[in-house]
Structures are given as structure tokens and as C-alpha cells.
Amino acid sequence: MTLAELATEVAAGIAECPDFVALKQVQRATAELMDKSRLWRWRMGFSYPGPMPIPEGSEVAGFIQVKVNDREIPPILPGNTNDMDAPDGYWMDGTSLQLVPRRKKPVWVEATAYLTLTANTELPHGMLNRKVRDAIQDGARHYLFQIPSQPWYSMQSADYYGALFKEACILLRNQSDLGFVDTRRRIKPHFF
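and the corresponding C-alpha cells:
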């Protein structure tokens, strides 16, 4: 299912809503969902300084783990990259990675990043399952009901769908952090 088909479903449920308006809000909800839930994770290895190998139509939203020459380094606050007394670390500069202190020779970096979509791109194949689809539709409805100059304007509906969208973002973030493994267990009481 594409984002355009999702937009058609969203527009069908809202009176007088054209598909192109719904598509814009579906794209907005998709980008926010990807950013908040860290749903699209990407492992990469590359030589620094150099370009990061990420899929076309995506950009890095943040890093989960960064290793330089098989040694994990922590995130730090942005600062002077030329300070040789600074502790090893990294930060995001826009959508690129900055290592501290600056390396004179190329180093091998292995990173796990979470990506977001750029404008007018589709989700990767297999990522649009029922939970993700429902979350995107709730987010799009949330944004659509907030447009005050339209006949479908309703802050009560916007708040309702906004709460559903926020809950879905939190749920998907927790599931992606656990590797989408069901953590429920059967336990048996032990009496002492």
C-alpha cells in the first residue's frame, strides 16, 4: 500500500476532503511517526570523513550507537572539533556526523542510525504493517481536523486523533527498542 492509497482512505472518511490535501497530511504524519518512533533503523559502516551510506529518499534523524575502530563513543554537546584535549564523542551536525576530536587519518565508523523520509518518498517495502498504517492515518486525521478554514474543522476530533497518534508513536517506539519481540511471559507462582 502506498501513501497515496492511505491518503484516499483518510479522505474518504472526512466529508469534502480532497485527496491531495489528505496526501500532504499523510506525508507529514509519516515523517513525524518515523522520527518519534525510531522505526526505521539502519546499520552502516563507512570511512570517516566521508559520506554515510543511507538509502535514497531518507535522511539521518539521529544515532543510536556509534563505534570508531570497534570502540563505542558517547554523544556529546556540539563544540570545537579541533580541540585535541576533548574526550572522544560525536554529535549530529544537520544530517551528518561530527567526531571529536577531529581525525587526521580516515577511521572506520560503524553506526546504527534511525532514519526519516524526505519529502515525497514512500515507505520502504514491508514497513507498512497494520499498526504503522493505523498510526499514520490517525496522525493525518489529527492534522486535517486542525485546519480552521475547512468545513471539516473540529478541534475535538483533532484532539482525539492526536491522542491516538501519540499513543501509537510511544507504543511503536517501545516495540522497536525491544526489537519487535513480544515480551509477555507466562509465570508460575512459587510458594516459599
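(Above: one complete record from the training split.) The chain is about 35% helix and 25% strand.
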